[in-house]
Amino acid sequence: MTGGVRGRAAGGAALALAALLTGCSQLADGSGVPGATASDTAGGAGGGSAAHGTSPLTDPDGTKPGLGALTSARDKATARTLIAKVPTKGRGPKTGYDRDEFGHAWMDTADGVPLARNGCDTRNDLLKRDGQDVAFRKGSDCVVVSMNLYDPYTGKDIAWKKAKAAEVQIDHVVPLSYAWQMGAARWDEKKRQRLANDVLNLLPVSGPTNSAKRDAGPATWLPPSKAIRCAYAVRFAQVALKYRLPVTTADKTAMLAQCGA
Questions:
Q1: What pLDDT is recorded for position 28?
Q2: What is the SS3 assignment for the chain?
């Protein structure tokens, strides 16, 4: 970060190399999973940092800016291979769900996820990660007060100011209520806190669009921008594999369809 400006992601070659070195993404309990191996994340000609975000295939930990579209046939084939690894089961009841079961919002103390305990809450970490022309509150290098954001869900630019904070919301790609119904109700508190604050599962997007999504899976809600839907399906799958979360059969079918199945 220099002069209050958040730089964009590194070039595609550097990201592809980083993905190869990463090998496989880490599960929430710290063990490896064959859901995002180097061969799965290397990407094709369209891999790396796209014009408006980073390909999820070259960003298996979610630390790079934005979410870039997947357009090449090779990338879509890689995406289908990854999505196919996600297990399925029926969606359970919502009984007992409460947002507080995942810790207080945007806590900086959810150990085991990127950017934890850096002195800045998760929301501001995400605004800094994805924003351009970022400006901070006077005397702070954490609290973002204005920025420009490209919203991957709508394909539109948002000139955001903290005075109208709700214009940008942080989306849980895999909604917390959805996760609860798919198995998180049986997790311990620390694992739920990791899911809620893991940057892999978080994207700053248009507030109204995020509100419209609610706790829907991909079978009932997809980003309005069709260009980003395959990348969204991949990110949903990456989170599910990392946390050993199944998805419904209908959701998996919809995810595969976005990438050409």
A1: 54
A2: CECCECCCCCCHHHHHHHHHHHCCCECCCCCECCCCCHHHHCCCCCCCEECCEECHHHCCCCCCCECCCCCCHHHHHHHHHHHHCCCECCCCCCCCCCHHHHCCCCCCCCCCCCCCCCCCCHHHHHHHHHCEEEEECCCCCCCEEEEEEEECCCCEEEEEEHHHHHHEEEEECCCHHHHHHCCHHHCCHHHHHHHHHCHHHEEEEEHHHHHHHCCCCCCCCCCCCHHHHHHHHHHHHHHHHHCCCCECHHHHHHHHHHCCC
CB atoms within 10 A of CB 152: 27
Please say if the pLDDT value at position 58 is more than 70: yes
> pTM of the predicted model, to two decimals?
0.83
Q: What angle do CA 165, 170, 176 make, to 5 degrees?
A: 135
Residue showing tokens 């921008």: 225
**Matching residue, tokens 């809600």:** 221
pLDDT for residue 26:
46
Q: CB-hemisphere CA count at 13 Å for 229?
A: 20
